[in-house]
Specification:
The protein folds into 3 domains: 79 residues, no CATH class; 139 residues, no CATH class; 233 residues, no CATH class. The protein contains 14 helices and 21 strands.
Length: 484
């Protein structure tokens, strides 16, 4: 009995000693990044209150090495303050709710053509993902930006480079991903808000047949470290492909689903030019074929017929055939959406054209929504709010007015303005992100490492400029669409 009591006493003493004298908290692997150059630590913690409650006596946090809290108690940690910590030198510790990404790559070998091996980690809500990836720089104009964007393709290993699907947070499981630096968007929120807005207002017309089909692509904010250096806020994006849209698979020489990217301003994507012939190649008339991915000679046939109808067809032919060739309710939504955004770069480029199955109509899918709401692609502010954007197809639909198309445009605008396009809803989305980025010091640490247009004008001025611009834009469009 005495031995049992002695054992219980020793066990109790050990437990008691641990709770009283343990003063180190070890951060989970992948949950943090330590930037020696900029003296920044970013630590992802989902439930900070729970950690503070159970670790009141902590004085040191172990990241890659020990850091002592300087002039602050552990229970005072918060998402809204940069916290001084000490390891020989003073670092600023930021605690974030956003997922944390690490990209490790030899940047001396990187270009915008070939993917090279790299290592990728993702930490979100205690879920840690680590994988080999292929990475290249992404974009055209954005290649000139100091803060680069990246195309990622997850691999099983760096030798065989077999593609591997990975699920990241609440986004889909896939091998292709994009990290968009948003360097040309001073508030780092426009693309995120409007990308989600499209999925709120538009669903695939074939959703009953394909319940998992999406009308666009998912996005998520993350904070990125590249080679252990803090690289700021990024938009993690899904890719657009046949699988995302649930287009029907092709069989041998039978073309079912189709997907094309509006790739360049050569007249095809804005429906102002339609050459008589197409060749057996991946590119034609400003389009890039994405699906089918090999059978180019057959893959261009239907798109060529659509282009010829829009560009060269008589009014009678257009009126008779356009609704079987193009999904006009999708055209209405895209037209109103692009005009709400004043997305000048998304009518002759930077969108996808999809086709669910053979003998089905084409439809628009927006893409690369960065030059919107008062800025253009290079981040330069544009103050014009008083115009209506279109292209060859959208203009002809209005001019010829098949099946009361004008009336549908007007009615749809009126309906959207009551909810998704209402001032209240739009500003609620904008304000929520702006205040989060301000209060949780995301803007603060972004500006510590990137000196761009965000710094030339204060956050508040950019924010007020966006609000003023959008209010004027909505007022103008109300007037214009009510005239239809």
């Amino acid at each position: 009995m005495k031995q049992l009591i002695l054992k219980l006493y020793i066990l109790f003493s050990l437990c008691f000693t641990t709770s009283i004298f343990a003063q180190d908290l070890v951060a989970e692997k992948g949950s943090f990044g330590v930037d020696v150059k900029n003296k920044i630590i970013v630590w992802h913690v989902t439930n900070l209150d729970a950690i503070k409650t159970t670790n009141k006596d902590i004085k040191t946090i172990v990241f890659d090495r020990k850091f002592k809290l300087k002039d602050i108690k552990f229970e005072s940690l918060s998402y809204i303050n940069g916290i001084p910590v000490l390891n020989g030198e003073i670092y600023t510790l930021y605690i974030t709710k956003l997922p944390l990404v690490h990209l490790t790559v030899d940047t001396s070998k990187m270009d915008n053509v070939f993917k090279i091996p790299a290592y990728f980690t993702f930490f979100d809500n205690r879920k840690y993902v680590k994988t080999t990836t292929g990475v290249r720089y992404r974009g055209n104009l954005s290649l000139s930006f100091a803060k680069k964007s990246f195309d990622l393709e997850f691999w099983s290993d760096s030798i065989n480079r077999e593609k591997k699907d990975v699920k990241l947070g609440n986004l889909r499981s896939d091998d292709d991903w994009i990290l968009d630096g948003m360097f040309n968007e001073p508030l780092r929120l426009r693309s995120f808000v409007v990308t989600n807005l499209w999925e709120k207002i538009h669903k695939p017309y074939y959703l009953k047949n394909e319940p998992k089909a999406k009308s666009g692509f998912g996005v998520k904010f993350v904070e990125v470290f590249k080679n252990n250096e803090y690289y700021g806020i990024y938009q993690l994006s899904e890719s657009l492909d046949r699988k995302q849209l649930k287009l029907k698979k092709n069989k041998e020489n039978t073309i079912n689903g189709e997907l094309f990217k509006a790739n360049s301003y050569k007249g095809g994507p804005d429906f102002t030019k339609s050459p008589e012939k197409y060749e057996n190649q991946m590119y034609w008339n400003g389009w890039a074929m994405r699906y089918p991915s090999t059978n180019y000679s057959l893959g261009w046939k239907n798109l060529s017929e659509l282009s010829n109808l829009i560009v060269h067809g008589s009014d009678e032919d257009f009126l008779k055939n356009i609704e079987s060739k193009f999904q006009t309710s999708n055209a209405v939504d895209y037209y109103l959406f692009i005009n709400l955004l004043r997305a000048t770069d998304n009518l002759g480029k930077n969108y996808y054209l999809g086709k669910y199955d053979k003998n089905e109509p084409y439809f628009f899918i927006p893409w690369d929504l960065d030059g919107v709401w008062g800025v253009i692609q290079d981040g330069v502010p544009i103050y014009n709010t008083n115009d209506v954007l279109d292209n060859g197809l959208l203009k002809r639909l209005l001019d010829i007015n098949p099946n009361n198309y004008k009336k549908k445009v007007k009615e749809r605008w009126t309906k959207l303005r009551l909810k998704e396009f209402s001032n209240e809803n739009l500003f609620s989305e904008i304000n929520g992100i702006y205040h989060q980025f301000t209060d949780e010091k995301i803007y603060e640490r972004e500006q510590l490492v990137w000196k761009n247009k965000l710094n030339e004008t204060s956050n508040e001025e950019h924010y007020e400029r966006l609000k003023t611009w959008l209010n004027k834009r909505l007022s103008y469009l109300d007037s214009e669409f009510n005239k239809l």
